[in-house]
Amino acid sequence: MDEKRPPALPGPALIAVVAIGGIVSLVITFAALHYSASHDSPQEAVPPTVIRPRTPPLDLPDPPPTISALDSGNILLADNDGHLFLIGRDPEEEPPRLVLRSVYRLVRDAERNLDKPSLKSPNGWYLDDLASEKFLRIRVIRQKFEKMVAAGGVTGDVAGALAALARDLAEEGEIPYLTEQLRDRSYLARRSAAIALGEEGWRRAVPILLEILSHGDEKAYPVVGPILADLTGIVAPAETNRQEMLVITKRWADWWAENGD
Q: How many CA within 13 A on the CB side of residue 188?
């Protein structure tokens, strides 16, 4: 009786094929699991980019004046230019009518009272008491000054008239207003304000005074030269020609570069 032969073992080639098939199956399974996990797990949503239209600035009107009632029965009205108006009633009038008792102006001037420590405000703010008559007079001078500046012109008469108005404003204590004119686009406004401020001893006028002479304005030298001499301490001849004027102007400019504000 023949013996039963055991089954033949697989050859090396078949083993290799089976092994490779198993590896490929594992790779496919791992990739499928990774894909499923990456799509099933929640992810942080990226907010969409929102482009908002640019809103143009609103052209709002100036705020209305502020009115406050005082315990004395008077009314304090504040406008947008830093003025405070104290308004009361005239008890002798029937019916009572409103009267303007006082006008004040709130001003910040860090250079005021530098030589008078007892009068100097620690925060630089001052409340100027303006009588109503003085306030109206200043208003009229300002209007004339601004009207002439707007009209332009470079004649000697215009320059002289503007300088006279600027001196009037300086005498009325309008130093902050004249200081603003130093930055005005109009050369005549800058020129007039600088002369008036310089005559009052304000060093802030020096740059514009130098600008006047740097233009070669020999007619302005008799006025501007003494002012610069007083402000800088550098003496200059009373009369000079154009070349000498430019030389002394350079000396004043060098002094300002070292000692100016």
A: 21
Q: For tokens 């070669």, what's the residue?
A: 216
SS3 139: helix
Are 198 and 255 within 8 A, CB to CB?
no
Sheet bearing 125-130, strands edge to edge: 66-69, 75-78, 83-90, 97-108, 125-130
DSSP per-residue letters across 95-141: S-EEEEEEEEEEEE-TTTTTT-TTT--TTSEEEEEE-HHHHHHHHHH
3-state SS record for 189-217: HHHHHHHHHHHCCCHHHHHHHHHHHHCCC
pLDDT of res. 3: 45
Residue 229, φ and ψ in degrees, nearest 5: -65, -40
Q: Identify any residues that bridge with 107 across adjacent strands, giving them in sequence order.
A: 126
Rounded Cα distance, 210 and 168, in Å: 23
Termini Cα distance of the chain: 130
Cα 136 to the center of its chain, rounded Å: 29
Tell me how far apart the alpha carbons of residues 204 and 195 are, in angstroms, rounded to a whole number.
11
**At 105, is the secondary structure helix, strand, or coil?**
strand
pLDDT tens digit sequence for 67-86: 888 887 889 998 887 888 89
* pTM metric for this prediction: 0.57
Q: Alpha-carbon torsion 129, 132, 137, 139, what sign?
A: positive
